[in-house]
Each structure stands twice: as C-alpha cells, then as structure tokens.
Write a structure and sequence with these properties.
The complex is a heterodimer of chains A (787) and B (252). Chain A has 787 residues and is an alpha+beta fold. Chain A contains 24 helices and 20 strands. In chain A, strands 3-4-9-6-8-7 form a 6-stranded mixed beta barrel. Chain A has a 6-stranded mixed beta barrel with strand order 13-14-18-15-17-16. Chain B has 6 helices and 10 strands, in the order E-E-E-H-E-E-H-E-H-H-H-E-H-E-E-E. In chain B, strand 9 (226-231) and strand 10 form a beta hairpin. The longest helix of chain B is centred in the last third of the chain and has 18 residues, at 190-207. Chain B is globular and about 45 Å long. The chains are: A alpha+beta (787), B alpha/beta (252). Chain A binds chain B through residues 2-4, 6-7, 10-11, 14, 295-296, 298-307, 309, 388-391, 393, 395, 781, 784-787, and chain B through 70, 73, 75-76, 95-96, 99-104, 106, 108, 110, 112, 114-119, 123-124, 126-128, 130-131, 155-156, 170. Bound molecules: adenosine-5'-triphosphate and magnesium ion.
Chain lengths: 787, 252
C-alpha cells in the first residue's frame, strides 16, 4: 500500500468517532432514500400489475337507468377501448355482532367470468351461480373484519326488500383496494363492505332487468380523458348520468396514488435534509483537518506531490466516510424497505406481491452520497491548492486575540477566567461558532419535524371531528325524503338532536377549470355540523351563496365573491351561476356547502333531505341503532368516532414505525453533529488544553473551557432549531398536501420540548465522551507532536 | 583551521569545486508586505552553485537564510530577480513545473523536521521514494542515518534528534540532485550531529549532489567548499575553504 493511503487510513482511524458519526448521518439519509424509493417502486409495480391484470377501468359513471344498447353507443366514442356496464345497488346489513346497521355496495358480476372490467380476484370459495338465489361474493377486508367464510349467511336489505344472502366466496377488486362508504371520511372495513352478485340475480333484486345503472370504461392512453368524459356525459344525460370521472376522482385509486405521492416526497425531502447535514459536517470536519494538517500538506508539496495528488488524498478520506455510510445506508434501507413493502402490500392486499429493489435506486443513492461528499469538500480542497508550502512551513503566528465586546463594555469582572476564555474563543471564530450552532439547530429541527405528523393528525381529528363536526352518527337515506323524515329520527328515544342535510352530486366550473363534487345543504342554524375557518370562527351560509373547502380555491382559482357555474347531476339537472360566499378550512376531503332552503329551491324540490346528523345519548346508543336498523329508508350510517378509531388503528403501525425511524435517525444526527463539533474543538485546542493542564488547571477547569463553549452554542441552537423546524414543517405540510387530506400547521409545545431535551441529552452524551478524552489527555504527547 | 594529516577519502579534501553551474541567482529579492512595514528578507542576492558543490549558509536569525533556501527549492518565489537551475529559469516556472522540479530534483530537510505524525519512520521515507525515479529503499536511507532499529516507530515515539534523522533520510532517499538542509543539526548532540553530517556529506560526495546547509554553528562551515554569510538579506561574506575537514573531525 502507498504510504499516502496509509496516512489516509490512519487519519481515518484517528477521527473514527467523527467518521462514524458523519457516516451514520449519511447512512440515515441513504436509508430513507432507499427505503422510500424501493417501497415506492414495489408498490407501483404491484399496483400496476394488479390494475392491468384485473383490467381496472379508467372512467366511472353512475346513472339512474339505461338500456343495454346505450353502452354500445358509449363504446363507439372514439378513444374508448372497452366498456363494461353493470348494476350497482346500496344495501344495508343486519349483522348479529353489530348493534348498528352496516352498509355496503352490491355490484353485478358479468355472466362470463374473466370478461368485463374491474375483474374480481377470488381469494376463497367460488363465483356465485347465476341460477342460484342469493349467492354473493364478499370483499376480503369486510370478510376479515367479520370473520365471514363461504357458507355464512347475511341478512340484508336491498331497495327496501329484505334478502337473505349466502356467502360463496371472498374476493378482492382493483376498484376497492381501499373501501370507503359513499360520503364517508375514512375507510372502515367493519362498517362498510363490497359485495358481488350475478348480474341476473341483481337485476331481479334491483328491478333493473335489461338495464344498467353503472358504467366503466377503459380508454386509449392517447385519448383525451376530458373529451371522452364530455361525450359520455352528453350521451348519458337523459338516462340520469351523474357525471363520469377518472381515476383521479376514484376514491380507492386516489388514496393509493396519494400514498405513493407521499412516499415520493419522503424519498426526496428527508434524504435531502440528512445528506445536507452530512455535507455540512463533512465540510467543517475537513476544513478542520486541513488546518491541522497544514504543515503536512506543505511537506507533501515540498517533496513534489502535485495539487491533484494532495486533493485526491483528502478526497479519498471523505469518500471512504461517505461510501461507508452509503453502503450501510443501502443495507439498512433495503431491510426497512422489505418491512415497509410488506406492510403496504398487506394493507392494500395487492394479489401479486412484488418486492422490486432496483439497481438504479442504489446507483442514485451512491450518486447522492457522492454529491454530499463533494459539497463537503467545497472550499476545503481549494484551500489546500492555494496553500503555499513555504508559508505553511513556518509555525503559525500566535492567534490574534482581541478584547471582546464583553471586555470593551467593562463586563469582564462578572466572568471567571475560564468563562472569559470561552467568550473570547466564540468571538474570535464567529463563523465556526455559527456553523456549529446551525448544525445543532438542524438536529433540533429534524426532531420537531419528526413529531409534527402526529401533532398535525391529532389536531386535524380534534378540529374536524370534535369542534367542527359534532355529530355522533350520520344517517344517509336511500333517496331524498320530505323534511318530516327528520322528525322520525328526532323522535327515536335516545336521539338528542337531529339536524338535516341534503347531498347532491354536481360539477363546479370556473373558467377552464372544473371539479366534480358533492354539494351539501345544511340548515344555517345547524349546531352539529359547523363550517369553521382556520381560527375556529364560523363561516356563515348567506342566502344562496356557496361555501367551499379552501383547497378548492386553489384548484378552481377562486376568490370569495367570484361566481361559478354549478351543474347538478341528478334529478332535473338544474344549472346556474352561484356566488362563492366563503371558504371553510377543512382538512379532509373537499366539500361545497349551501343553505338547505337555497339548495332545495335550486333543485326545484320541496323541503327535502338526504339524511341527518344525530347526537345521541351514549347510554341508549344500542336501542337507537336497533330502531335505525328497522327503517328500510336508511341506506347507511356512519359512526364518526368508530370510523376514526378504526382508521387510526390501521395507520397506527405505519405512524409508529415512521416515528421510531425518525427519532433514531434524528438522535444519530444529534450525536453526530454535537460530537463532531466537540471533537473538532478538542483537536484544535488539544495543545492549549495540555498547556493549561501542565500549568496546573484541573481536569474540571479545562473541560469547562472546552465544554462551556459547546453549552453556549447548544443553548443558542435550540430556539433556532425550533424556528428551522417550524419552517420545514410548513414546507412539508404544503408538499404532502393532497385533496383528500391537508396537514394543519400545528406543532404542540411538547414537540418543541422533546426536541430540546433530545438535543440537550445528545450534547451531554457528546460532552461526556470528550470529557473522557480530556481526562485521558497524554500531556507529554500532546505537547511534543505538532499535529 | 589546520588541514588534517590524512584523509580516508581523497575527495573530501578536494577544495576545488566542480565547475558546472547548477544554480545561478541574479538579484534575488524578497519583500514581505505585512501590515504597514515591508520586511526585506532578501535584498539582491547574486550567487552561483556548482554541481557537487557543498555550501554552508551562515547568518543571524532573521538574516534570510530560510527564505533563500526556499526560493532555490522552488517552495517560494522571489519578489524580484531570477533563479536559474541548469539554465532553466525556475522563477518563470508554472506551479505544476515547480512541483515536478521539486519532485525530480530537490531534497529538503526542514528546520522543524515536519514529519507526518500518522506515518512511521519507514513510511515517512516511503512517502517520498514512492514518487521518485531512482530512490534508495526506505530501509537503506534510514540505515544511512543510523535508524535501522527505529524503523517502525511513529514520530511521537522518537526523540527530536531521531525525528531530524528521519527527515534527513527522507530527503536523501530519493538521491536528489540538490539537497537543501535548514539547520539539520540544530537539535542534535555532537555525535548524532556528526553522523547526520556524515550522511549528508557522503550523499554530496558519492552522488555529486549540490548541497546547501543552513547552520548557526560556524564549526560546521569547515566541512564545506564554500561558506556564505548572510546579513540583513545580503551576502556579507564568501569564504572558500582551501581544505575541508571531514565531519568526524569537527570540533564543536
Ligand atoms: N511569511 C513571512 N511573512 C513575513 N515575514 C517573513 C515571512 N517569512 C520570513 N519573514 C521575515 O523575513 C526575514 C527572514 O526570515 P528567514 O526565515 O529567512 O530567516 P532565517 O535567517 O532563516 O532565520 P532563523 O535563523 O531564525 O531561521 C525575517 O525577518 C522574517 O521575519
Ligand atoms: Mg530559518
């Protein structure tokens, strides 16, 4: 081995603590990068495979009723590759173990299996026989929630008629990777299920012989989706079509898509932060080494080593740290990705589970780490090139200490000699002090970001579902009913308050932009369902004005007071221009609200409702549920609290895992930054400290001088870190915003507290390690060798 | 000085310097502009060094000896004047040319040893031999300075004199055409000093290496062909030794 390489290895060994610390930061960044990107690829591969194999449709539309020949006309629209028409009916189930009625959706199966779109994937049992009454497939998530197996029977109500159905199989569908009850907020597998019946049987049950009420289509990738949607809508208008929509408005596809987007963000932002911190640490460490090795560099140059050879020498030092970190990070990331992919694929139940690690991800990881290494070398390497051997050879002149501000202000008498040394050192090297502070602040910031997700979700749930929406149960009727239906609900014993709502699908158009959405009409004196802005103030429903989710302001480029066109998609399909009177700052989903009378009038109907918000006496909850079960007009119930709990449970594992990773990684960085800084100060001042020890200062006093500096910087860094953390959260909440969920910009005080404590602990741990070094300082060696 | 009665080597008392000019300095000036007062380290040095020449530079502290040596070795450039090495004007060299000039021709011994602390004695020497054309083996070089038994020690495990000898081994190992030594014996006891000077003078003798040695010790001057005294950045005196005394017989 070349002597120069040997020197590199020994230098590396001498800074091993620091090298490991920095390498670990690189490893964290690379691990998150590899984990997120590999999981992303696996998820995309499994999804792509599922969607293709099971012929997931591109367009979806429901209508009131159309003869089958209409479907052929849809198929003739240019760009449409395949059309599948079917019957879809809402149903309710009366399950023995659930006091409340449970809702579901019944879909027809094509007569020939393996034909049509959105093909089911059979997991257990067999397909229903069209000549046998009441045979159904049940979706796997629902089957699991209720431990249903082939042979079990179900009591259901379809179109107001009671039907006893027999489960013959358990299935999955690309259309219902995530099953969400219409009008629901979060998926809840025990309170909503998807079922399939033979077309013949369902036509009979739903009075749809020879007709269909739902259509899906695949379109050519080159065709314009918007144009086809327009054609379909025009064609189906007279059959009660409620507007075709694409995958981006299909709940399940959208949900998976948002998750993939989230992973994509996660594969970019946290690794950038980690690698940025690593580059920063490398940079200060390398500069430090180069200063310490000034004379060594001069010797190398004096003996004819070229600038390039010297630069490569230090480049190798940095590269070995970075590449070491990248390899460790890749291994760790792969391991985490296996776990994450498993978790996701299990959660989404993709039938084909593909773990797809890719060389490109690892190559990208390596390139990224090299970039951070290169940034780490910026400045440092050019300084070695500039270094003149003759000058470097002369012993550096004694450092030029000046009176500090403290002294100029005459405050020195308040400080001990040791404290004065600390202050002077800080004032003399303000850039170094500032860099260290920023480094520690970033750690604090990462910790704040790590806890932000949970703070935000907790706030979201509290704000949205306790403050804004205060109902316990939301009842959805099979079809719009006269206003007196509300009194039927309020007269059920145990129902404390019942307030009405009217829901109707519509398309909002503003200039070139449009959005398919449900308009909800609510009473203006509503107490259970309130429209709030970000400060918790009520947004009034004025006259005929529309109040929209504030995300829609962006989507549709709207300001309050603008007029938009509203096309209702049901009934008489009225159409008119309405003024936007305000915005609500809701965090989940998108919505449009109108006052109930104004909506009724717009729909040219009498006072009617689609359902009600109920506040119920918890003691009599079960009897209320029983009463609701007996009403065939009830299409669905959503229980807010139960839904939220079950959703949080499904994502809890994910959140916990992410948090663990984040906390571990942030602690690694914390120790990396603080330890590097302390270690650098130690090596810079080893000689001075040894001299002080020789003069007779105690170990404690000497440590105080070195660690006092660190303590001051840490204390300045914490509030700065809180600020940086806040800014990062703000950025992240924007980056992760989807139309389905927005992250409220809420950071709890505990989060700031925890971040501060972790930083302090990391500082303390690093200080102890350095303190040990001071204790073991070999005075003779320290004084003899000019490093 | 009394010439010795007998000499082991005939060439060591050969007082006529060889004639081929290796270095030619013309009006070399060096001014450091620090703060308000410029420091004139060298004020117009004219000097010639010949192949196989052995010169000693004497002078008080601050007289410009190290500065002169650094300029000849291509570590530093003069503010004015020129330096020719074998008729090539090194003062016009690019940085890269200077690097290769040092790499291929010059061996340095520094006033402050300047060993790499993370490398052993052998490795410190190897550092130089690895980029040289026809070097001694590091072990041979260390043998020459009498350090065979310390070959795997790190600088921190060596005494000051031993460190200086490693530095000399490092300088001579590549068998340079020019050997520039800045107070090589400053930190050494008599015997070790003599050993070191022996090593330097045998390189000078056997390889015809043009050698310049800075010293404060006027006694050492007796082993040189020429003794050049510097004072306040100027050559104040040049003394040619009619006969040279081998290091072993120098009186300290
Ligand atoms: N880099 C520099 N910046 C400013 N002044 C310098 C520098 N290098 C040398 N000098 C000045 O130039 C003069 C000559 O210095 P030089 O090192 O050549 O002296 P020297 O003869 O080698 O002394 P010594 O015997 O103490 O080593 C001194 O006055 C010194 O202060
Ligand atoms: Mg000198």
């Amino acid at each position: 081995m070349k002597a120069l390489d040997r020197k590199m290895l020994r230098d590396l060994a001498a800074m091993k603590g620091q090298a490991v610390a920095i390498g670990a930061v690189v490893a964290c960044g690379i691990a998150v990068f590899v984990m997120a990107n590999t999981t992303l690829r696996s998820l995309e591969a499994a999804r792509g495979n599922y969607y293709t194999n099971n012929r997931f449709a591109d367009l979806f539309v429901s209508l009131v009723r159309a003869p089958e020949t209409v479907a052929d006309r849809v198929a003739e629209i240019p760009g449409v590759l395949a059309v599948d028409h079917r019957v879809v009916e809402a149903l309710t189930l009366d399950l023995d173990r659930m006091p409340e009625p449970v809702s579901g959706l019944m879909l027809s199966l094509p007569d020939t299996p393996d034909s049509g779109l959105n093909m089911v994937h059979l997991r257990q049992g067999r397909l229903p026989d069209k000549y046998h009454d009441g045979e159904v497939l049940v979706s796997e998530p629902f089957a699991e929630a209720h431990r249903l197996v082939p042979g079990d029977t179900l009591n259901t109500t379809i179109r107001g008629r009671r039907e006893k159905l027999t489960v013959v199989g358990v299935a999955l569908s690309p259309e219902y990777v995530i099953q969400l009850q219409p009008g629901g907020i979060f998926p809840d597998n025990s309170r909503f299920g998807v079922f399939w019946m033979s077309r013949r049987q369902l036509e009979a049950a739903a009075d749809m012989e020879g007709a269909f009420n739902n259509l899906t289509a695949r379109i050519s990738p080159n065709a314009s989706e918007d144009d086809i949607i327009d054609s379909i809508d025009r064609l189906l208008e007279s059959y009660g079509g409620t507007g075709a929509y694409g995958r981006e408005d299909q709940y399940s596809a959208r949900f998976v898509d948002d998750e993939i987007k989230g992973l994509r963000t996660m594969g970019v932002i946290p690794p950038s932060i980690f690698l940025g911190v690593a580059a920063f640490l490398l940079n200060i460490s390398l500069r430090r080494i180069l200063t310490l090795q000034r004379e060594q560099i001069a010797v190398l140059k004096a003996f004819g080593y070229t600038n390039q050879e010297v630069a490569v020498h230090y480049g190798k030092l940095i590269s070995s740290i970075v590449i070491g970190g990248a390899i460790a990070g890749s291994l760790l990331g792969t391991w985490l990705a296996v776990g994450m992919t498993d978790m996701y694929l299990e959660f989404y139940r993709f039938p084909v589970q593909i773990f797809s690690p890719a060389a490109s991800v690892y190559i990208a990881a390596l390139i990224l780490s090299m970039i951070s290494g290169t940034v780490g070398m910026l400045g440092g390497i050019s300084a070695t090139v500039r270094l003149k051997p003759a000058e470097a050879m002369r012993p550096a002149p004694p450092t030029n200490y000046k009176q500090t501000i403290v002294e100029r202000l005459g405050l020195q008498r308040f400080f001990s000699q040791a404290e004065r040394m600390v202050i002077r050192e800080l004032e003399r090297r303000p850039i170094k002090a500032a860099l260290t502070t920023v480094g520690i602040a970033f750690v604090c910031a990462i910790l704040v970001v790590g806890r932000f997700g949970k703070d935000s979700i907790d706030y979201l749930i509290d704000f949205q579902f306790n403050t804004a929406e205060r109902d316990d149960v939301r009842v959805q009727l099979v079809e719009a009913a006269p206003y007196r239906a509300l009194h039927e609900f309020s007269s059920i014993p145990g129902v404390l308050t019942a307030e009405p709502f009217r829901g109707i699908p519509a398309i909002l158009t503003h200039g070139p932009r449009s959005k398919r959405i449900g308009i909800t009409g609510i009473a203006s004196d509503n107490e259970l369902f309130r429209l709030l802005d970000v400060d918790g103030n009520e947004v009034p429903l004025e006259g005929e004005g529309l109040v929209l989710s504030s995300v829609l302001a962006e989507t549709l480029a709207l300001n309050a007071g603008d007029e938009i066109e509203v096309q209702i998609l049901e009934g008489e399909r009225p159409h008119r221009t309405i003024q936007v009177s305000g915005f609500v700052d809701d965090f989940a989903g998108t919505a449009a609200y109108m006052s109930l009378p104004a909506l009724n009038q717009f729909l040219r109907e009498g006072r009617s409702i689609s359902g009600a918000y109920l506040l119920i006496d918890p003691v009599r909850q079960n009897s209320v549920f029983r009463a609701l079960k007996e009403r065939p007009a009830v299409a669905a119930l959503s229980l807010k609290k139960a839904t939220i709990d079950s959703f949080m449970e499904t994502i809890a594992e994910n959140i916990m895992r992410m948090r663990m990773i984040n906390i571990i990684f942030a602690s690694v960085i914390a120790i990396g930054v603080v330890y590097s800084s302390a270690r650098i100060s130690f090596s810079e001042r080893g000689r001075d400290l040894a001299t002080l020890r020789v003069i007779g200062l105690t170990k404690g006093e000497v440590s105080g001088i070195l660690l006092g500096e660190l303590a001051v910087l840490t204390i300045i860094a914490i509030p700065l870190g809180h600020f940086i953390g806040y800014m990062l959260c703000l950025f992240l909440s924007k980056a992760l915003e989807t139309e389905m969920y927005r992250m409220p910009m809420i950071i709890r005080p505990e989060t700031y507290g925890v971040a501060a404590v972790v930083v302090l602990l990391a500082s303390l741990a690093s200080a102890l390690i350095v303190r040990r070094k001071i204790d073991h300082l070999d005075l003779v060696t320290a004084l003899k060798v000019r490093e | 000085m009394i010439p010795p009665e007998s000499n082991a080597e005939a060439s060591s008392n050969d007082s006529t310097p060889p004639s081929e000019i290796v270095f030619e300095l013309k009006g070399v000036t060096k001014v450091y502009n620090l703060g308000t007062v410029p420091v004139h380290a060298l004020r117009g040095i004219d000097l010639q060094l010949y192949s196989g020449d052995f010169v000693v530079l004497l002078g008080h502290s601050g007289s410009g000896k190290s500065t002169l040596l650094n300029i000849m070795g291509g570590l530093d450039s003069p503010s004015d004047g020129k330096v020719l090495y074998r008729n090539q004007e090194i003062t016009k060299f690019s940085e890269r040319e200077l690097t290769f000039y040092r790499r291929e021709h010059v061996g340095f011994v520094f006033q402050f040893y300047n060993l790499i602390p993370s490398l052993t004695a052998r490795e410190n020497v190897a550092l130089v031999t690895e980029v040289a054309e026809d070097p001694l083996r590091p072990e041979e070089a260390l043998e020459l300075v009498g350090l065979s038994h310390r070959i795997d020690h790190f600088p921190s495990q060596l005494s000051g004199g031993e460190q200086q000898r490693v530095a000399i081994a490092r300088a001579i190992a590549k068998q340079p055409h020019v050997l520039l030594c800045d107070e090589p014996t400053g930190a050494l006891d008599v015997q070790t000093g003599i050993d070191v000077l022996e090593a330097i003078s045998s390189i000078n003798r056997d390889l015809g290496t043009t050698t310049a040695v800075i010293t404060h010790n006027a006694v050492i001057a007796d082993m040189a062909h020429r003794v050049i005294s510097l004072a306040d950045g100027q050559i104040s005196d040049v003394k040619i030794n009619d006969s040279r005394i081998p290091p072993a017989e120098l009186k300290w």
